[in-house]
Structure formats: C-alpha cells, structure tokens
Design brief:
By secondary structure, the chain is α/β, with parallel strands linked by helices. The protein has nine helices and 14 strands.
Amino acid sequence: MIITVTPNGSVDFVLRTVSPPNHDEQEVIPVAETAGGKGHNVARFLAAAGHVVTALGFAGGPVGERLTELLGEAGVATALTATQGTTRRYTTVLGAAPARLSYHMAGPKVTQEECRRLLAAVAAAASDARMVILAGSLPPGAPADLWAAIIDAAGDRPVVLDSSGSALVAGVGAAPWMVKVNRAELAALDVVPPESSASRTAWSDALRPLADRSAVRRWWVTLGPTGSIGWVDGKVIRTPGARVRVINTTGAGDAFLAGWLDAHLRGASDETAASRATAWAAAVCEQDAPIPPTAVRVEELHGGLSGQDAL
C-alpha cells in the first residue's frame, strides 16, 4: 500500500469558455470535477496505474464529503481527518490554448487537535505502507513544522516530500527519503538554480551544497518543458522534456511524481523512472483536466524521449 498525505486538499473544477466575454459575463461549460491538492492528484494517478493507495489529510463540510466521494470514485481508499472548517475549492477556467486562469482558496483553518489526529492517523497507517507521499501546501493554522512531525510519525517508511516555502524547509530538516521540487521552490532552500538548460556540471554545483547540508540523498527538480534534474548521492541525472501541445499544466508536477514512483516501484532505474515521469507529466499537460493519462499515450511519449540529448 502507498499512503498519500494532503493536508490542504480541494475539490477542483475545470471549466472552458465557449464564447467571448459579454460585458460582465462569460459563458463556460464544465469539463471535469476531481479530487485535488497535490497529494490527492498523486493518489489518483497511482491508483489508475494499478497501485493500492490510501489518502490521508483533512476534509471538512459538504466540500470535504464530496472530496471523499471523488477519491473513492478514482479508486483511492480514504482515511481523512475531519475538520470543523470546510475544504476549499479550486477552479480553473480554460480559454483558447494556452490561456488559463485559476482561482484558489487558502483552505480551512485547522486546530492543534485536528493536527494531532492527523499525526495519529499517519502513524497508524504507516505500519502497513510501502511508501508515504507528502505533497502540497499546509492549511491556515497548521504549524510550519507539520511536515516534519508527519515524517517522524511515518517511522522508518520511505517518505517523499513535495512542498514549498517554510513547510518545505522544515520537512527537509526531518530527512525524508526523497524531495521533489520545481525550480522556483529551490529559493526557499537558499539555492540559486542555474538556467533550466544549464549543463549537468552547473546543476551539480548548485545542488551539491544543498545535499551536503541536509540528510536528503535523493533530489528531483522539475523544469517544465525543459525536463528535470535528479541528484542522487552525487550523481546528476538529466532528463529532456517532451514536446507536446500544452492545454492545462495543472497537476503536471504531480503526474511527474506519480510517474516516477510508479516506475521506481516496478524496479526501474532512476534514469528510466525520470523519463517515464516526464512522459506522464507531458501527457497530462495535453489534457483539459488533471486526470490520469492513458497508458498508450504515456508509452508514445516515453518512446519519443529515447535517445534525446539530455545535455
């Protein structure tokens, strides 16, 4: 079993415009409604790939009930911690590609007692977990070190962290097995990244000090259309991006993480896992909504990456 922990989950709507704005009105049509928040996206993608996944996190009010329903419809088991506040919504409006506008809420304010119950839920579930995925932002009221406390609660299970800001910094201090970030999120870790297209040597020079001052030995940096950079015990792994027609990038980073984990758990090398992760992310970018990509499309994109120059 894989556990995902998403403290600031959401119910995500994707809408598409069908005509030019008329004064103060814009006609739209619904495209998709999904369980959102980074960790829930990862959970849905992994479940679609055949993995047994249980989603933990906070859920409250009618929106929280809908979040639980959507996760179940996606094949994800749930053990969500109830909150007094109501789970947030996240809405994306698509125009003519690549136009996109997203509206997101901060999320419900959680209490210390609710955080304690989440920690207890993680500790109980982790004993049966093969891997624990911590992803997304923290809701208002959560302590900045909540990720660190959850990593401690997970015990000796491999933990993957994907977050940002002060929560990311505190989580890194608790020594997860792997950290996944994007280029912008490195700023919170006092890293000035080189250009996305920079050489392996330049990226090694940037990431080595970060690895040296932490206990994390496995880092992955997503670079959007340029691909990704991995740093694994001093080895730099560069993967090129896939060329696709981008419609909606929501969930692309989560698809990358899910694709990497899917390949890793099936015994793939780090290089192959990164290449397949890139294919997953690119396939999601081609879609209107962050739904699991088809295996056929992932294979097509992965095949196209073979033999490309990774700089």
